[in-house]
Amino acid sequence: MEESLLIKHKFKIILVGFITGLTNGLFGAGGGTIVVPAMERILKVEEHESHATAIAVILPLSIMSTFIYTRHQILDWKSIIYVAIGGVGGGILGAKLLCKISPQWLHKIFGLFMIAASIRMILG
Fold first, then answer.
1. Spatial distance between the Cα atoms of 124 and 110, rounded to a whole number of angstroms
2. Where are the domains of the chain?
């Protein structure tokens, strides 16, 4: 890849990361809602790789957000423990299922989740 294109590509990756981090800090979302579509459309990354990468991106974002939220004492630690227990089980199952779903179905399922979440947020 030509050096100027490489620099431009790295800038796009950093910009996607910045927007993802900002969204994560403000709304507690960003891994899937921002990273997956951005990686697919802007960075031209394959569907399964985009979803898997989004999961890996969540960890450092969550650690930073947790540190800041802890300093401001706005975390419900009792809920965190129980949600984390369920989240680990769901994460294991989801990661195994990701490898078995075709890119076309993965795209459709992800889109339906995004639409459902959007409608739920709008309706309150």
1. 21
2. 3-123
